[in-house]
Specification:
Elements (H helix, E strand, L loop, with lengths): L1 E6 L5 H14 L4 E5 L7 H4 L5 H10 L1 E4 L13 H8 L4 E7 L12 E7 L3 E11 L2 E7 L2 H17 L4 E6 L7 H13 L6 E6 H8 L8 E4 L1 H14 L9 E3 L4 E4 L17 H13 L3 H17 L13 H11 L1
Parallel strand pairs: 1-2, 1-3, 3-12, 5-10, 8-9, 8-10
Antiparallel strand pairs: 4-5, 4-11, 6-7, 11-12
Helix pairs in contact: 1-9, 1-11, 5-6, 9-10, 10-11
């Protein structure tokens, strides 16, 4: 029996997470959920969207499945997603991106992995007003974090049979900060000569991703670049609704979809649960439940391939709950 922290999230979060929980229950994996509160609705109650008891639960259980949480734009409280990653030192953001059966896109044979440093860079959130009309935001890059994320990327490549790791940077302009990241990548790469490695400037990477995505296998990069490029990669295979994600640390792992909370369609039973279900597949494999993970993935892909018992955004005729029921029926 695995005890796992569960954050339903807000917006469409409770619907898509509920679908994932239903599917996991049918997979054969024995999961005991500890349901937690987080997000916009509890800020007034606790003064934060990510209260201590939620973080402590994840520290204790070591694994969590999380729904989307709303982040205010241009003001308000700190992003609960950033707070979660920093508080638990979830330094590696893992986003596998590959073709999804039944989802038609402009590209074929896309199968790549984005590894994003999760704790520093411009997302450190260190900003101040210098004088009226001038704001400064600090980009923090450290040797420790850069070495750690590059080592994680190469170890992941070895464990999952990946052939090449590409470091994405802007060291031609930010010679000290991105230069340090690039130096760390090269040092780590020198210890893993059995894995092909290359470096590429971020703007060139963006162009080549939308021209020849099949040339990439794994990409590792700093925080902001990772946020942007992972969404570009999601677009290659059908969008954020079909791409899983995980945030990995030394002690804890949080699995979540990369899409937002979509409050405009919350409560309508039309949200696509694919991304959260695929994230739960990553979680099951992390827990050592490989057989259950394979059952979920096979059933999900079967339903997607038929393209009928899927949500309207995928061209189907059922809602969130109906799609979950179809996946369960296939298992």
């Amino acid at each position: 029996m695995h005890r796992v922290s569960l954050i339903p999230g807000d917006g469409i979060g409770p619907e898509v997470v509920g679908a994932a929980v239903q599917v996991i229950a049918a997979s054969g994996a024995e999961i005991e959920w500890e349901v937690l509160e987080a997000g916009a609705e509890i800020v007034e109650k606790h003064g934060t969207p990510m209260p201590d008891h939620t973080l402590n639960s994840i520290r204790k259980n070591r694994v969590a499945l999380k729904g989307p949480l709303t982040t205010p734009i241009g003001g308000g409280y700190q992003s609960p997603n950033v707070a979660l990653r920093k508080s638990l030192e979830l330094y590696a953001c893992l986003r596998p991106v590959k073709d999804v059966p039944g989802v038609r896109t402009r590209f074929e044979n896309v199968d790549l992995v984005v590894i994003r440093e999760n704790t520093e860079g411009l997302y450190s959130g260190i900003e101040h007003r210098v004088v009226p009309g001038v704001v400064e935001s600090l980009k923090v890059v450290t040797e420790e974090a850069s070495m750690r994320i590059c080592e994680y990327a190469f170890q992941y490549a070895k464990e999952h049979g990946r052939r090449k790791v590409t470091a994405v940077h802007k060291a031609n302009i930010m010679k000290m900060s991105d230069g340090l990241f690039l130096e760390c990548f090269r040092r780590v790469a020198s210890r893993h000569q059995d894995i092909e490695q290359e470096t590429m400037i971020v703007d060139s990477t963006c162009m080549q991703l939308v021209q020849w995505p099949e040339r990439f296998d794994m990409l590792v990069m700093e925080n902001l670049y990772g946020d942007i490029l992972s969404e570009i990669c999601a677009g290659l295979v059908g969008g954020l609704g079909v791409v899983p994600g995980a945030n990995i640390g030394e002690d804890c792992a949080v699995f979540e979809a990369v899409h937002g909370s979509a409050p405009d369609i919350a409560g309508q039973n039309i949200a696509n649960p694919t991304a959260v279900i695929l994230s739960s597949v990553l979680m099951l494999r992390h827990l050592g439940e490989g057989t259950a993970a394979d059952r979920v993935e096979t059933a999900l892909y079967g339903v997607l391939s038929e393209g009928v018992q899927v949500t309207p955004d995928l061209g189907g005729t059922v809602g969130t709950s109906g799609m979950a029921e179809a996946i369960v029926a296939r298992m």
